[in-house]
Amino acid sequence: MASRPAVHLHVAGERMDTGSGGVHEHRDPSTGEVDARIPLAGPGEVDRAVNAADAAFRDWKRTPPEERRRLLLRLADLIEANAEEFGRRGTMDNGTPASVVGGMTGSAVEWTRYYAGWTDKIAGELSSSFTSGVGELNYTLLEPYGVVGIIITWNGPLISLAMKIPPALAAGCTVVCKPSELTPFSAELFMDLIEQAGFPTGVCSILPGDPAAGEALVVHPKVRKVSFTGGPATASKILHACADTMKPATLELGGKSANIVFDDADLDAACGLGAMMSVGVLSGQGCAFPTRMLVQRPVYEEMTARVSVVAKSIPVGDPWDPAVLAGPVVNEAALERILGIIERAKIDGARLVAGGSRIGGDLAGGYFIEPTVFADVDPHSELAQNEVFGPVLAITPFDSDEDAVRIANNTRYGLSGYIQTQSLSRALRVAEELVTGEVLVNGAANLRVQRPFGGIGISGMGKEGGRLGVEEFLRVKSVGIA
Ligand code: NAD
After folding, report:
1. Residue 163 belongs to domain spanning
2. Whether residues 272 and 144 fall in one domain
3. Which residues does the chain have with pLDDT short of 50?
4. Do strands 126-128 and 137-144 pair parallel, antiparallel, or not at all (unpaired)?
């Protein structure tokens, strides 16, 4: 346990070693062994943090935009200066391989700098009607909500913080954040850096906690808005809890995103992206990953064979080994859940072309699953319809463009859509027809900060990224002057 950093509850500038929510035994997912005991917040600490954030809001919303920008730019510089340590913490948190975790730190720096730049560009709209005889001047004020309750999940602990906290602070809101108890180490360092950057006390508090702490945060009367990343079942509970007071919520949830590979696609690129982004990177634990590959019939067998070769070649293992690209899944519950889905997919008649088992040998103590690829997946089956959140890809053939769109849209989710084609007109047409919050063509990157991200259907509501990302933390007041 000595090798893990201490974790605290950060309540309005105070660091607490213990919390009334008890203790979470953090396990190293690559060994299954307990490696740290994490103090958890209970409703009492949540209440104190929210009251402090509410008190801090009065000054924070009046803080000149250039001062808010200076503090956020300072935070971005500190994240960048601590990139190596964030890399280590990412691996400690959830077993993200050292070889990939660095890129996520760079992304967190970009999100923080981008929203620093928005502090002095928040502006409403103006309309006048003097010439029409009505004789009114109308304008809108964009006002920060107040205290925002932020609840995030465990798969990208640093980037999830950076996608929510900087835009909230840029907008002039104050923040109480509950990270997942499964991944406390990155959040601890993030909070240290917020303090080092010089944000006023109470403007941001981060408290690890379990679902009960999340519930206490959501229902707190001084929390004016909730921003949540996690699963649809939890999101539904949060919406119900918000309903009594009509509290607004931004919800970033799961996905079952289709990756449509047309027969005119660059198959080398489509194969590398399709395999790595579904069963390699983060061991498939990404909300927006292309986990259903729909392949046009003429290239179907070739793509299936090539994707299975790539999947079998992905180095899985000790996440601290720089040659490893895929680590364990987050915990034993996830391991059992994913293995169950794999077994049921076999029974459902899908053709297993790569992986399909837990990894044993030296890795038997950890939660390692082989990169797994199923072909001939029935689009109505459990594997095609439900998010796995693990290294499992479902491949299904299609004939026409209409066929592809119909299968892609046959889901309750609507987070991302991927298109692989050399035809610009086909890409533009299909992009319009996909019922998703975003479409990525020919390898456009996930989570570019300039591009609003967020789903529809059971993938959620609201956006992160771009101007809309800061506007999630602002409410509109209209003023009319006769
Ligand atoms: P989860 O919904 O179980 O937990 C997410 C967070 O909510 C945790 O911090 C948890 O403690 C808290 N929580 C649980 N119950 C709560 C309640 N009743 N009230 C308030 N808070 C509560 O999700 P998970 O299983 O940890 O995460 C996986 C899910 O997250 C997947 O569906 C994945 O696709 C999704 N996800 C979405 C995005 C995105 O940006 N769209 C990003 C990453 C992960």
Report:
1. 9-253+459-481
2. no
3. 1-2
4. antiparallel
